[in-house]
Design brief:
The chain has 3 domains: 2-46; 60-92 and 190-338, no CATH class; 104-167. It contains 14 helices and 8 strands. It has helices at 2-23, 28-46, 60-68, 75-86, 97-105, 107-131, 138-163, 175-178, 181-187, 192-206, 220-226, 269-272, 286-289, 329-338; strands spanning 212-219, 242-250, 253-257, 275-276, 278-279, 282-283, 293-294, 311-316. α1 (2-23) runs antiparallel to α2 and α6 runs antiparallel to α7 (138-163).
């Protein structure tokens, strides 16, 4: 969050300059010039970048992606198409988060991996050359497939790390929350429900679905242990597991969309997607979701102890650009333990 603090300091300096200008008009051009130089030069030198408004921003690259992949038709057809595309493992390969985290802590490991991958690529090339002149053994066929996947996924991880992750001043635990929807589209990033939901929302926006919301939920048992009541001490070391959804206005009706769920082998759309126009007999809308307990079919597995897991809605974006300020792990936990990003009670202690 240091970028936010930095730009707030600059903003306050500019305000002070403006007040001085009102008292001494002759200083106008000089002070404005100095303010501009401070903002531009300091940001460039210190390398600060503000990601707060980037998470759900639709870029030209996103619009081009939508056109290139033919995301068109009715709103419901667009929703279906976006879910199918974001689950295409070739368009959006899942990054190896543990490997990426190791590289973030020690970039030298990325170079070691790159060297190892080059050797694997050379071995794979020799197998390709061999199979043109003779049949491969069963073991060699299996080895070729393993190496193909290793090279494909490894090259993708290096592409994401070199082109995206290195530019972000984040820790490994922040990585799932720091990738914007547009960045996920450009780099083909698949990495859990946060990224899936951001990617879905920017693609839906670019495809012409204007009313979308970002929805954050937490597992009820975890939430209750972390912040049970104001009369009981919370357990600060509890990690609140949860899930993110998109709330989408589909042809005049709001629907809660589980962006991470897709079953291509289902015989009908009801089983293929998780799109809910109503919950417990009540029409879905932004207001009815707030502080609600959700029972989503794909989350109905036995917990310890029973009953099955339930999800508490901790936040609903106020508009299509609102990602609930979940930029990092601390911000997520703050929203999780308070249920409200602006609530003064029950703040996650590490959140500043």
């Amino acid at each position: 969050m240091k970028d936010t603090v930095f730009f707030e300091v600059i903003r306050q300096r500019i305000i002070l300059n403006q007040e001085a200008v009102m008292k001494r008009p002759g200083l106008t051009s000089w002070l404005l010039s100095v303010s501009l130089i401070i903002v531009l030069a300091s940001a460039a030198v210190l390398g600060y970048k503000d990601y707060r408004d980037e998470a759900l921003k639709v870029t030209k690259e996103v619009e081009a992606f939508v056109a290139r992949h033919g995301i068109a038709g009715t709103d419901l057809e667009k929703v279906h198409k976006i879910i199918e595309i974001t689950h295409d493992r070739y368009l959006f390969p899942r990054i190896d988060r543990r490997r990426m985290g190791d590289w973030m802590k020690d970039p030298g490991k990325a170079e070691e991996f790159r060297t190892s991958l080059n050797r694997t690529r050379a071995d794979l090339k020799r197998l390709y050359e061999k199979r043109t002149g003779q049949l491969l053994t069963e073991a060699e066929v299996k080895q070729r497939k393993d190496w193909q996947e290793a090279v494909f996924m490894g090259e993708h991880d290096l592409k994401v790390f070199d082109g995206l992750v290195r530019k972000k001043d984040v820790t490994s635990e922040d990585l799932p929350f720091a990738v914007s929807g547009a960045e996920a589209v450009v780099y083909g990033v698949s990495d859990g429900c946060t990224t899936f939901t951001k990617t879905f929302i920017v693609l839906a926006q670019a495809a012409g679905i204007r009313e979308t919301r970002f929805v954050a939920t937490g597992n009820v048992p975890d939430y209750n242990r972390a912040c049970p009541t104001l009369n009981q001490p919370r357990q600060p070391k509890i990690t609140i597991n949860g899930h993110f959804f998109a709330l989408v206005n589909i042809e005049g009706r709001w629907a809660l969309v589980n962006c991470t769920y897709y079953d291509p082998y289902s015989g009908d759309d009801t089983g293929k997607y998780e799109i809910f126009f109503s919950l417990d007999g009540q029409e879905v809308n932004p207001e009815m979701l707030k502080m609600r307990i959700l029972k989503i079919p794909s989350f109905q597995h036995e917990g310890t102890p029973p009953p099955p897991n339930r999800l508490y809605v901790m936040g609903v974006g106020k508009d299509s650009r609102d990602d609930l300020e979940i930029e990092n792990y601390d911000a997520l936990m703050n929203l999780s333990v308070s249920g409200d990003r602006d609530c003064p009670d029950c703040k996650f202690p590490r959140f500043k």
